[in-house]
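Recap from last week: sequence in, structure out.
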Amino acid sequence: MPHKGASSDVARRPEAPETGILAYKAELGAFELVVADRGIGIRRSLRRCAAYAALQDEGRALEAALTDGVSRHGPGSNHGHGFRPIFTGLMNLHGELRFRSGDHAITMNGTSPTSATSKITQKAPIDGFFGSVRCHAKQP
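Predicted structure tokens:
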């Protein structure tokens, strides 16, 4: 994190690994993972690619980024396929997922990918990206 008086450009520049944080909690029958950074956020990252340059809304950018095959590297780049297997596995473990960038958040929960629910809401703006995943064992 920049020291007091340092330029905020460090926190806003792309690929700002020094601002990243990862935390997890594991207990019997449950696991939670949180990741966050103060980088440029999803929309600005995707807009680097001509295919997504028209994205004007952080919510639509989040939805796009969570779609299989979408990444800042563009369609056909063989990037952007990481979320689908994660979603499938976590939804089968009663997963609760939350992703946040800019002024929007997407929450998802369910017991399988086909019965998963998704809700997008507008929030106060933040810098960077935040994601949390919680899964728990099926109750008897």
